[in-house]
């Protein structure tokens, strides 16, 4: 039970949990967990076959009950992925996100995790999906409960033990290709563009001009630190709407 409470932020709303020791059933809801009231026990006949035993060979998985091709393991989510190289403040980020997503075989639309002169960061994801879908990394591990939770004003806190991967599958938190573990964003804690601190709408790498960015070491994706636009930092891309079978 304690483990379930501690890891609630990693569990998608609507997920069922069964506690074998206490035979209790819970469902993840918006503000926590709700215990489900089960009906009376329907006993299994004494002469019925026992449940399948686990294999004595730990490397041999149990045989599936149905063909794998008939089961979909994809769950609705929006992916947050880094560009394959760091960039200074002069970048065509949306184009880079689009091109690298396509090169990686991702068919949905990816937008830069940046406020621009045309749009605040908080509005980049389609409105209908800002609360309903978790934000995950390239391998489906949850970074945020949903898009709106990033912009609550607390800096977009995330679990630093969950990696952020680039489109070519490298962990930007540990890979030396990104010497500075810092993410450009140019936004307030609520995801609003800050025109004095977004490298002149991401059009300059001038050392004298500044942009807002967030060191990953803070455990926040929207920490409010100012960097010269000459710095080459991490640039993230967000899948801005869910697309079934988005990856081939």
UniProtKB/TrEMBL annotation:
Collagenase NC10/endostatin domain ranges (all copies): 78-243
Q: Name one Pfam family in it.
A: Collagen_trimer
Q: Which residue range or ranges hold the Collagen type XV/XVIII trimerization domain?
A: 1-43
**Membrane-traversing stretches:** none
Q: Where is the signal peptide?
A: none
Return the InterPro entries for the record.
Answer: C-type_lectin-like/link_sf, Collagenase_NC10/endostatin, CTDL_fold, XV/XVIII_trimerization_dom
Any idea what this protein is called?
Collagen alpha-1(XV) chain-like
What organism does this protein naturally occur in?
Leptonychotes weddellii
Gene name on record?
LOC115937617
């Amino acid at each position: 039970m304690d483990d379930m409470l501690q890891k609630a932020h990693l569990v998608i709303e609507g997920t069922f949990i069964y506690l074998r020791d206490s035979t209790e059933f819970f469902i993840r809801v918006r503000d926590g967990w709700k215990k489900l009231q089960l009906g009376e026990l329907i006993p299994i006949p004494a002469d019925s076959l026992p449940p399948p035993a686990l294999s004595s060979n730990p490397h041999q998985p149990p045989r599936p009950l149905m063909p794998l091709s008939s089961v979909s393991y994809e769950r609705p989510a929006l992916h947050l992925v880094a560009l394959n190289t760091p960039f200074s403040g002069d970048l065509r980020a949306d184009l880079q996100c689009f091109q690298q997503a396509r090169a990686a075989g991702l068919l949905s639309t990816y937008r830069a995790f940046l406020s621009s002169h045309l749009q605040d960061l908080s509005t980049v994801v389609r409105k209908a999906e800002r609360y309903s879908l978790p934000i995950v990394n390239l391998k489906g591990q949850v970074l945020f409960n949903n898009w709106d939770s990033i912009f609550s004003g607390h800096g977009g806190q995330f679990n630093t033990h969950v990696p952020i991967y680039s489109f070519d599958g490298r962990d930007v938190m540990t890979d030396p290709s990104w010497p500075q573990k810092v993410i450009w964003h140019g936004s307030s804690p609520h995801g609003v563009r800050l025109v004095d601190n977004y490298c002149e709408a991401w059009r300059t790498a001038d050392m004298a001009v500044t942009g807002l960015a967030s060191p990953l070491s803070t455990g926040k994706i929207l920490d409010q630190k100012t960097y010269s636009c000459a710095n080459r930092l991490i640039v993230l891309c967000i899948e801005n709407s869910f697309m079934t079978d988005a990856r081939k």
